[in-house]
Amino acid sequence: MEKPIQCVQGIERVNIFGVRHLSPAASYHLSKLLKQVKPKLVLIEGPSDATNLIKHLLHPGVKVPIAMLAYTQDLPVDTVLYPFAEYSPEYQALLYARDNARFIDLPSNVLLGLNRWRRENIIAETKDLDYHNRVNSIYEKVAQLGNAQNYDDYFERNFEHNLNEGSFHNTMWLESFELRKLLEPLEARASPKINARDLIRESYMAMQIENAIKEGFKPEEIVVVTGAYHAERLIYTAPLTDRDFDYLPKRNSQLTLMPHSYFRLSSRTGYGAGNKAPAYFKLMWECMRDERLEDLPAEYMSRLGREIRKSGGYASASNIIEAVRLAKGLAYIRNSNMPALTDLHDSAVACLGHGEASKLATAFAYVDVGTEFGELPEGISQTPLQDDFNRELKRLKLERYKSTVSAKLELDLRENIRVRSAKSAFLDLNRSTFLHRLVFLGINFATLDRKRQADATWREEWVLQWNPEVEIQLVEAVLKGENIKLATAYALKEKLEDCADVFEAAKLITTACICKLTTVIGSALSTLQRLTTEANNFIKTSDACYALGQLIQYGDLRNFDTKPIIPLFKQLFLRGALLLVDYANCDDKAANMAISPIEAMHRVSQENIDLVDDDIWVKELFDLASGDDKNSKLSGLAFAILLERNLADESFCSLEISRRLCPGNPADLGAGWFEGMSLRNRYALLSRVNLWKELDEYIKSLDDEEFKRGLVYLRRAFSGFDPREKNSAAELLGELWKVDEISTQDIAIFLQEPLNEQEENALAALDDFDFDI
């Protein structure tokens, strides 16, 4: 290929080493090259503005895998991630060169600017061309030609296992050159812009190489570590000029370090430059480093057997030996000099899983991907929010939960009177506050088990699990505040500004109290006050009232003052009570949505009887129970509540029962009313024989069509009865229907017998009448 005049002078003498990211073989051969060349400068693909982070990356307290994270300082937050594992060639280059290393890729602010430009200008043009699928198909075609299952398998057999001196560098260079030639027609057909970012990056890296030569470094004393895709182009690409650089799109950005994990490095999570088995490749790197690559199959199988035994499976030494032998045989059949991961998997399934891969799924996950994650010591470059997160974990003794394996944490929010200091007495309460703040910020480190929480108000059960996304979410939240508390308060204030829902406002007040955001509670109350005066939705108003009621009732548990909330709570309850009757002018679908809110309002009136106007609530219940123009199901529910509270005397009960179950009433009025009444206090229902007599006569009066509709309502009503209640109802009906020759008990037994096929089919036909399904 003829070299253009404008290329970097002397670059052909620069040691450009093309790598595959996260390749143990690339690290092995690169280490050999560095020891041989002894370069005075090592230039590495990575954001050039991150060079000052190298000293932090190499800190003795840093444990890989870690990543550099570039993020924008304006909304919407965009990020770029640069992960490092122990076997990353870039990381090995840094370990060798240390102070003589530099990153030479585009600075992070330009990369983030190009990312936005790419989204805005390219995706729409290329979405129909499926460019990336076509690129992947070329790699898969290469794998097929190499008789491999996929490109990863092809690369491992032909590159990772090849430790011959110089062979990796030359073959990688040649393959990348040929692959790029194959990709050029696709790029030309897709869009002239599709590969613009890579071309700009290569031109910028060429500029950095040129600058290093101009500084006085001899070309042969420079080693460049870059992706093999770019290696050949760096020689024949014109360096970017300062003027061209100034025209590139940019976004205000910052760089930070973050722990990473093997799971997120795996290609299974969508990281394009990852590999599917990070733990396996780390084991490969350790064997290469110690010049004992031939031990890899035996070490892998031994670890796999250990994981199988941990989970209760069986894997003897003889099984392991046979699996290794079979793997080597498969490698020979597949023209490989040693087993690849696919060979190891196939032999393990045959010898350890007895032909069932599902038996080894968990063991494969641990040995292939692993649970290893990185660590950063205090003082290492991070955002203020990341630092605060780590400080809080230490203060609240939660450091051991910073793991990629999920763990449960049970909290007792009550004061621990067995300890002396207030810090220890309220440790679990402070933990709860911290975890609730994280949840509200959208930082997925902890998840509250709502089902267990319902059992006791003083207890919480959380599931904690760290992953790299937690660090990214922390970085994204840094725009809201310098610590977790300030960021949560800012996020809550944003929510309040957009809040147009009385129930949402009540939830935000609850969040402010649980998270102890005293500076925001005043604004939250003002928002709820405004929305309460405008509220006209019974369901949302009652839900909001119940939320505040719970907050007031259990406020002492979380050590916050609920007195400012009480006046608004009273107003909200009054508003909800007055909206009830008007809402009841609704169909059955809307009525079903109101059942829980009505029961919530009733619970609030009973639990806070000294704070709310219960007389107003009772009056509204009577109006609903006796209203002929209201939804019959809700009228029945209101009647049941009054009956439960002994507020409905016998005359009122008799009048309502006879009126509602009067022969001639449509099924949706009579049977629907009974369905609503059966939702509560079935003991009172089952103790009124007169009601069942009225129901019996009412059902008899219905014609065939109305009877079918009525049966739908009754089926739904009785479906909520437990077996004991159903037995009591059957005995009542047996008493009503008994004849001389059949006892009440026999009738009750008959009523509870399973339906035969004919009866099942007859009931199935009634589904046409159930318009709520």
Uncertain runs with pLDDT below 50, 5 residues or more? 1-6
Please state the CA-atom Rg, rounded to the nearest Å. Answer: 36 Å
For the biggest sheet, the summary is:
4 strands, parallel
Globally, the shape reads elongated
Sheet with the most strands: spatial strand order: 1-6-2-5
Q: How many structural units, i.e. domains?
A: 4
| CA-CA gap between termini | 73 Å
- Number of H/I helices: 38
What structural category arises from helix and sheet content?
A: alpha/beta
**Percent helix among the residues?**
55-70%
Question: Can you put this structure into words, describing what you see?
Answer:
The structure is a single chain. This protein has 773 residues and is α/β, with parallel strands linked by helices. The protein folds into four domains: 11-260, no CATH class; 278-369, no CATH class; 384-486, no CATH class; 558-768. It is 58% helix and 8% strand. The protein has 38 helices and ten strands. The protein has a four-stranded parallel sheet with strand order 1-6-2-5. A hairpin with a 6-residue loop joins strand 3 and strand 4. Helix 1 runs parallel beside helix 3 and helix 36 (723-737) packs across helix 37. The radius of gyration is 36 Å and the shape is elongated. The chain starts with 14 loop residues before the first strand and ends in a 9-residue tail after the last helix.
